[in-house]
Amino acid sequence: MFSCVGYGAASATAPLKPLTFERRECGPDDVQIEITHCGVCHSDIHTVRSEWGESLYPCVPGHEIIGRVVKTGAAVTRFKVGDCVGVGCMVDSCRHCDSCTAGLEQYCDASPVWTYNSPDAAFPKEGAYTFGGYSRSIVVTEHFVLKVPETLDPAAAAPLLCAGITTWSPLAHWKVGKGHKVGVVGLGGLGHMAVKFAVALGAEVTLFTTSPSKVEDGKRLGAHRVVISKDAEAMAAESNRFDFILDAVSADHDVNAYLALLRQDGHMVLVGLPEKPMSVGAFALVGKRRSLAGSAIGGIKETQEMLDFCGKHNITADIEMIRMDQINEAYERVLRSDVKYRFVIDMESLPKAV
C-alpha cells in the first residue's frame, strides 16, 4: 500500500478538505494512474452529502478521471507508461453474470464496484471501500481502464467518462442516426453532451429548455431547433414528431408533456434522476405504442467506442477549469446551475502533502 493525497469530506455536513488515505499497490493486472484532471458530477455532491443513502466517510468522490499511466502490472497488455487514460464510474464488477459477459458491467447483477464509496474487495484490508478521483493517483484493474485519444484536450475529455457515456449509451442502444428526429430535454452537463452526440450521429436535433437564455447556446452546440417548453403553443406544435427523446432533467417535471411529442413507436429515455416518483399517464403510452425507458452510463466496451468516436469527431465537453481548493464553491454553483457545462479540477492544484 502507499499513501495518497486527496480531497474529501469527513461527514455529510463537512466541507471537502485535503486528506491522505491508502491506495493498494499495483498488482499483476493493475494500472497505476497519476491523475491530471477530474470532472465534477452532481452525483459527487449527492454522495458526499449522503443524499442517496448513508455514505462512507471519509468520502473522496470523483468518477470522471483522466491521467497518465505511471506503472503497469506484469500481466497488463493494453497499456504502457505514459499513455493517456481514463477511469469512469466503475472500477470492477463480478465479470461473470449475463450483464457483465455481454459487456454491460454497469448492470452487473452483484452491482458494479463504483469508483468511490463502494465496497472494495481488491484492497487488502477488511471493510475497505473505494476512493475516487479527487486525488493524486488511482490503481485500477486493466479491464476498467480506458484509452483516451491523444487528439482530445484531456481536461475537456474528463466529463466524457460520466456525462458523455450517460448520454451516448441510450443513443447507441436505440440506434439513433441519420433520418431520425431527436429531442433533448434540458441543457446542462448531460443535455449539452446529448446535443453534440445526436448531431454528430446525423440526427435532426431539437432542444427543449425552460430558459430562453439558453436558446443561442443550444444552437451553438449544434441543435437545429430550440423549443421553450413553457410555451404551450410551441409544445403543441411538436406533437407526434419525434422518433426519440432523451430526457436529461433531474428536477421534477411532467414527462407526459414530452411523451405526447413522440411518433408511433417512439422512445423516450430518462437519464436524469428526479428526486420524487413520476406520474405517467397510460394513455400517452398505449395510444401510440410509445415506450418510456431509463438508461445508466455504459459498459466498458461501449465507453471505449464513445471515446474513439469523440477522437474521430473532436467531441469534448464544454468546461470551466477550477483549482482543487475551489471545490466547495463549485458544489454550490452546481446546485445553482451556474456552470457551462461541467467543472473540471486541475489536479496539479492538489497539495503535494497534507
TrEMBL record:
UniProt signal peptide: none
Cofactor list: Zn(2+)
Cross-referenced InterPro entries: ADH-like_C (IPR013149), ADH-like_N (IPR013154), ADH_Zn_CS (IPR002328), CAD-like (IPR047109), D-isomer_DH_CS1 (IPR029752), ER (IPR020843), GroES-like_sf (IPR011032), NAD(P)-bd_dom_sf (IPR036291)
Keywords: Metal-binding, Oxidoreductase, Zinc
Classification via SMART domains: PKS_ER (SM00829)
Alphabetized GO MF terms: alcohol dehydrogenase (NADP+) activity; zinc ion binding
Ranges for domain Enoyl reductase (ER): 8-345
Coiled coil: none
Protein family (similarity comment): Belongs to the zinc-containing alcohol dehydrogenase family.
Annotated protein name in UniProt: Hydroxyacid dehydrogenase
Lineage: Bacteria, Pseudomonadati, Pseudomonadota, Alphaproteobacteria, Acetobacterales
